[in-house]
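Tutorial handout. Part one gives the primary structure; part two gives the three-dimensional structure as tokens.
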Amino acid sequence: MSRSGELGADMRRRQFITVACGAVVWPLTATGQQQLPVIGFLHVAAAGPSVGLVDAFRRGLEEIGYTERQNVAIEFRWAEGDYGRIPALVAELVDLPVAVLVTGGGEGTAFAAKAATTTIPIVCNVGTDPVKTGLVASLRTRWQRYRHKHSHI
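Part two.
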């Protein structure tokens, strides 16, 4: 790849990161409340092995001006590998309430979040096509309630 091609790829990567972080933060700025806005973070894994993931998530928020316990709160829920726990965990987050739900660990957490609320924005990371699986109706809607990171392995 040429140097200009590498620069273009770097620029697209930065733009993607900016858009993804903006999808998480947009509902936080829209709350208009005095108390800290809350991000609900739900993952199927256990907390211990996910330390690197959580650190990266916090760094990403800090890069765009959000620091935990200063201007945003994060409520974590971990299913400890038990998909059966996910519906109850997402219900806990919805009841808090949270300004946005971030789900990880595949379609199971994303579908549980979708089933639990029709009003809270959801940011999910799935490895399949979210349209084909029925998670979203279309990728064309700019401000749809679901934001996703779609990756192919």
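Part three, for discussion. The beta strands are 38-43, 73-78, 100-104, 122-126, 146-150. Residues 35 and 71 are 9 Å apart (CA to CA).
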